[in-house]
Amino acid sequence: MRWLIDNNMLYRKIVKRIEEYFSLNSDRMLLIDGARQVGKSYIIRHVGEKMFSNYIEINMEEDKLGERVFAEAKTTKDFYLALSIIAGDKMKERENTLVFIDEIQAYDHLLTLVKFLMKEKRFTYIASGSLLGVTLKNTQSVPIGSLDIQHMYPMDFEEFLYANGVGELAIEAMRESFNNNQALSDTMHNKMMDLFKKYLLVGGMPKAVQIFVESRNVVEFRSIQNETHELYGVDASKYEQEHDKKLKIRRIFDMIPSNLENKKKRVVIKDIEDKRWKRANDYLEEFDYLISAGIALEVKAISTPTYPLVENSGKNLLKLYLNDVGILSGIYYRNNIKAIMSDIKSINLGSVYETVVAQELKAHGYDLYYYDNKKNGEVDYLIDDADNLSNIPIEVKSGKDYTVHSALDKFLSNEEYNIKKAYVLSNEQKVYIENGIIYMPVYYVMFFQNISNVVEEFLD
């Protein structure tokens, strides 16, 4: 069931996870990790203010740039003293006092302090972080067992539907149709395709979605996307001390949209520094930096698709996608919406469609891979199939030729791969199975869910 704080708030699935955490009296601090502008602080603030009579919020980025009250808080006593300076009147009992540590990555020592704060149980805590993956890699004493890290992404397509007035009953009916491999009615299909194309334009940044819902103003939501993209460019090298490495990180980030327009869509290694002798291994730290920051989604090449896929992947032939399809479509088409909404034949939307599928799969718990074989070609995505100890290939088609997929056909013909099912996602309404391939409309990707990943997180 959906969980809403008030009628004005955009629905986010992660609210349920936060609410459950506050109710469990956990020994681990919930830390919401994610790129900037995805709505972390906003959602925590709303849940926290609703559930706790004493709500305390500290933004460590602001503190670091300002009074630096927490700069030397290396012990719990130091932390409580610093906290009392700004919110002493709200420091009550654990049951009614929430301390929200926003942008916790600004101070490495606070991550180390988490273990001791949770052990003393003086207050209820929650934290958020941007570029957290980068910070944790550089933190000497990571509090293993004291952090419960939950990644947050831009709004996915289902959340976008709720924001645009599609009701829960309608979405659950569509989910049932997906589970039964059934198509939607003509009316519902046309409605979903219309909203899906608008999602390609707007993306999932909450501010952009809010503007779209309220005003439908393309110029305004494009402005938000442009600002976010520029902010990500700054963040791409914000915490990196080496000047030379900063330039390479920014260069790789800036190359993503143009790389996706290439036939192979891979990172072009020689173009990073215009040095033909360089290899992918020379930039592993730079790739990891962008991926850990949450502003780029990695899709790793697999040539031998055995379960689990992670055992056969590497950073060679890497593809990088932007974390939000709206930002990408804004870079490509600016304020012109016809390229997406009007099905102009001369416009190839392949990169945009692949980006939205990557964004959906990642938000739903999947690690991303693609099949690459010199002889057989490429398949857009591979995801683990835990039920059959195999994997599931997925092809994404933005045009009318959705039944043409020679690489997928060759992939499925290899009996050693033990493939039980495959998907082709396209604009077509009809859902059917042919030669082991399930053809279905692209918007159904919103119901792909890595159940094993969800169970593992719950057990954690």
Describe this entry's structure for a reader.
There is one protein chain. The protein has 460 residues and is of the alpha/beta class. It is built from 19 helices and 13 strands. The chain has an eight-stranded mixed beta sheet. A five-stranded parallel beta sheet has the order 2-3-4-1-5, with helices on both faces. Helix 12 packs across helix 14 (284-292). The two termini are 23 Å apart. Residues 1-6 and 454-460 have low confidence and may be disordered.
In short:
With 460 residues, the chain is α/β, with parallel strands linked by helices.
What global shape is seen?
globular
* Percentage of β-strand residues: 15-25%
Question: How much is the radius of gyration in Å?
Answer: 23 Å
Low-pLDDT parts are: 1-6, 454-460
Percent helix = 40-55%
- Broad structural category: alpha/beta
Count of alpha/pi helices: 19
Largest sheet, in brief, is: 8 strands, mixed
Question: Quick check: average pLDDT?
Answer: 91
Descriptive labels:
17% strand, disordered N terminus, single chain, five-stranded parallel beta sheet, 460 residues, globular, 19 helices, alpha/beta, eight-stranded mixed beta sheet, disordered C terminus, 13 strands
How are the SSEs placed, and which strands pair?
Elements lengths: L13 H11 L4 E5 L6 H12 L2 E6 H6 L10 H12 L9 E6 L5 H13 L3 E6 L2 H6 L9 E5 L5 H7 L4 H12 L6 H17 L3 H10 L2 H18 L7 H19 L8 H4 L10 H9 L3 E7 L11 E9 L2 H9 L4 H4 L8 H14 L5 E5 L3 E9 L4 E7 L9 H8 L8 E5 L5 E3 L2 E5 L9 H9 L1
Helix pairs in contact: 1-2, 9-15, 10-11, 11-15, 12-14
